[in-house]
Fold each of these.
Amino acid sequence: MPARPETVVDLSRLNLSTGEGKRIELPVELAPFELGGQTYLADPTKPQARLEASRHSSGFAFKLTLPVHIEGPCMRCLDPAALDLEVEAREVDQSSAEDAELRSPYVDEDELDIGRWAHDAVMLALPTQILCRPGCLGLCPDCGEPLNDADPAQHEHEKPVDPRWAALDDLKLE
Ligand SMILES: [Zn+2]
Ligand SMILES: [Zn+2]
């Protein structure tokens, strides 16, 4: 398994004094997304993200915006599926705080792990069902063929006869 791509922002290089803010744009490489047993990839894998950072007396506040195009298999029929998302996320890090709730899990010393943050933010923004089309009909439960462009009449399969009834049929023959 390849190493997870890493994109890190050095906060000290933003040179922000208290009360100041800065907006930077940078490409953020996104690792594949695992969802419902399937793998989804961002295309491009390095979308251009916008980071707004502002410095407060107690730490930093961040806002991340990132457009992503995701591709992978439809969760019902496995045909190719794609979706576009405009991901937005916010983080606060109060470096002096003892309380872990006020620390951002993506900030370590002067480094903001924007790659991991962006990955998590996209994960949260993804719908639970990724489909090739709204209301995808999925696969026929009897023969496993895709149902979307199929004639429903071709999938009215004979249901197997309940073995208990089959046994009764045998009895009648005697
Ligand atoms: Zn589908
Ligand atoms: Zn069928």
Amino acid sequence: MQPSNKILITGGTGLIGQELSRKLLHKGYEVSVLSRNKKTDAGIKTYHWDLLNNEIEKEAIETADYIIHLAGANIADKRWTEKRKQVIVDSRVKTAELLYNKVKKSKSRPKAFISASAVNYYGTLTSDRIFNEEDPPAGDFLGETCRKWEQAAKRFEESGVRTVIIRTGIVLSGKGGALAKMLKPVRLGLGAPIGSGRQYMPWIHIDDLCNIYIKAIEDKKMKGAFNAVAPEHTTNKEFMKTLARVHNKPFLAPNVPAAVMKILLGEMAGLLLKGSRISSHKIRSAGYKFLYPGLESALAQQTEKNIM
Ligand SMILES: NC(=O)c1ccc[n+]([C@@H]2O[C@H](COP(=O)([O-])OP(=O)(O)OC[C@H]3O[C@@H](n4cnc5c(N)ncnc54)[C@H](OP(=O)(O)O)[C@@H]3O)[C@@H](O)[C@H]2O)c1
């Protein structure tokens, strides 16, 4: 039985938050969620926050031993207009600042603040270079977003709270997210590389990602940024080909031209057309052993469980 530490998860209603909550409850933790909508879920208390009015239910902060900050407007849901970009930044940065300000006023301090970030911190650059945690942030929109997001999280560090930042790759889950979107054409027998297909796609199985968050709670030596990506480096072409094979579908279609993606998605297309290689060395050196280090087994597990 694990100590009954109380974990507060912002954005805990999302893809990662729901799975992480399930695993934490299974391990004996008490989980509560901070959401813009007040609703109750079996076993999980939902607290409300109102970002426009800078409000968080007081009890949420006072009872939290650990805060995990996952909240953020989905980057792939809508076209990146200037307005949408601001929502993407504010929903991560202003929320982290609001949490910090409320913690500062509270009598209690969390034992750790653990924040999501993304491997987009390093920018999207198709090359053989392997980026690690020492590399600087990129100057593109998502690189800047991650820099501001991490800077807001680091205010906790400056006030003496252990702070861990999880720079996450594309999360593979049978319950939604990027994999569900990529699977649609594959199921129709239209699996194809996007653009040149040579761009890297740093990915991680959702079970590994949740285990890394749990390690960040339990391993007091963990501090600072960690890349959360599988050790295997996969190009877009290899990814799409493996996905088609695992689903017994053909991989015949010609590459989807970059120009089509740009027309369909605008600036967001860069996310799919370019991609960097990211190192998993630091998290492995911290003692984390991946359940799914390779893509084939990661995708096969989702089909075996019949959740895709
Ligand atoms: N999934 C991935 O492949 C991936 C990869 C890299 C990084 N990440 C990062 O990991 C975090 C969690 O990812 P996820 O896939 O679980 O995301 P998700 O399914 O889109 O859920 C994010 C949650 O954030 C909250 N949220 C959405 N818009 C918001 C807004 N405008 N203001 C405040 N809160 C808002 C929502 O909770 P309520 O509606 O309950 O408020 C939502 O359930 C995100 O910050 C994401 O950028 C994810």
